[in-house]
Automatic annotation (TrEMBL):
InterPro entries: NAD(P)-bd_dom_sf, SDR, SDR_fam. SUPFAM superfamilies: NAD(P)-binding Rossmann-fold domains. Belongs to the short-chain dehydrogenases/reductases (SDR) family. Keywords: Oxidoreductase. CDD domains: SDR_c (cd05233). This is NAD(P)-dependent dehydrogenase (Short-subunit alcohol dehydrogenase family). Pfam families: adh_short_C2. GO terms for molecular function: oxidoreductase activity.
Length: 250
C-alpha cells in the first residue's frame, strides 16, 4: 500500500533548476520513486552532469537539459526539446537582494522574466498535453517571502506571490481534467544558493530568531512535500500552499 501511494512509476517529470539545491533534492526523490526525471540547468555545467549521474546511479531513467528561463526563446526551445510531461515542478528562479528604490528596470525585468514569465510559458506549453491525457501535476516552488516579504527581496517576493496566484488559477480551471496545481513555500533553507547570506553570523542569528523552530531547513525537507503532491497520495490536494519554513510564516 505504501509503495502504491508514493509511486511515480511511468511518469515523466521536469524539474526546473534541478542541478542543485531544492530542485536537485526533488529530482532525486522522484528518481527513487520511479519517475523519468528531466533535470534542468540554466546552462551546461559540471553540477548538471553530476545531478544526471546521481539520478542514473539510483537506477532511474533520466536526462539533462539546459535553457536560460529568463529568455523567452530558450523557454520555448526547452518545451519543444522535452516533449510531454506528467509532472511539472516550477522551481528555477532568480533573486536580487535590493530594496525597491535600488532596482533598475533591467534588473526588475530579469526577476520578473525568470520567476513569472517562464512559469506562464511552461504552463502554456505543457497544459494542453496534460489535458489530453487527463493527468497532470503542477508544483510551484514559492517562498515564505510571498507571505512575509523581506525588504531586500521586494521584487522576488512579488513575483512569487504572482506565481502562486497563477497556480491557483490553474488549480480551479483544470481540476476537472485530472490536473492538480499546488505550491510549496520554503523558508530559510540551507542550500548553496543561500550560502553567502548564511555565512554572516549576524544574518544567521536574525533569521533564526524569526523561525519558531529555531533552525533552518534542508532541501530534502521540501522534496518530501513535492513527492506527496506528485504522487497518488496527494491526488486530492489542489490549490494548496504548503509552508516548509519551521513556522516562519506565522
Amino acid at each position: 500500500m505504501l509503495n502504491e501511494l508514493f509511486t511515480l512509476k511511468g511518469k515523466r517529470a521536469l524539474i526546473t533548476g534541478s542541478s542543485r539545491g531544492i530542485g536537485r533534492a526533488i529530482a532525486m526523490l522522484y528518481a527513487e520513486a520511479g519517475a523519468h526525471v528531466i533535470i534542468h540547468g540554466s546552462k551546461p555545467s559540471a553540477k548538471l552532469d553530476e545531478a544526471l549521474a546521481e539520478a542514473r546511479a539510483l537506477g532511474a531513467s533520466a536526462e539533462a537539459v539546459s535553457a536560460d528561463i529568463g529568455d523567452i526563446n530558450a523557454v520555448k526551445g526547452l518545451i519543444q526539446a522535452v516533449g510531454d510531461v506528467d509532472i511539472l515542478v516550477l522551481n528555477a528562479s532568480m533573486q536580487h537582494y535590493q530594496t525597491v528604490p535600488d532596482f533598475d528596470p533591467e534588473t526588475f525585468a530579469l526577476d520578473v522574466n525568470a520567476n513569472l514569465r517562464s512559469c506562464f510559458l511552461l504552463l502554456q506549453g505543457f497544459l494542453p498535453g496534460m489535458q489530453q491525457r487527463r493527468f497532470g501535476r503542477i508544483i510551484s516552488i514559492g517562498s515564505v517571502n510571498q507571505w512575509r516579504p523581506g525588504a531586500r527581496l521586494a521584487i522576488y517576493a512579488s513575483t512569487k506571490a504572482a506565481q502562486f496566484n497563477l497556480v491557483l488559477n490553474c488549480a480551479r480551471a483544470y481540476a476537472a481534467d485530472g490536473i492538480t496545481a499546488n505550491s510549496i513555500s520554503p523558508g530559510v533553507i540551507d542550500t548553496d544558493r543561500n550560502a553567502e547570506a548564511l555565512a554572516d553570523p549576524a544574518i544567521v542569528e536574525k533569521l533564526r530568531s524569526l523561525v519558531p523552530a529555531r533552525r533552518f531547513g534542508s532541501a530534502m525537507d521540501c522534496a518530501g512535500a513535492a513527492l506527496l503532491l506528485a504522487s497518488p497520495a496527494g491526488a486530492y490536494i489542489n490549490g494548496a500552499d504548503i509552508a516548509i519554513d519551521g513556522g516562519m510564516k506565522l
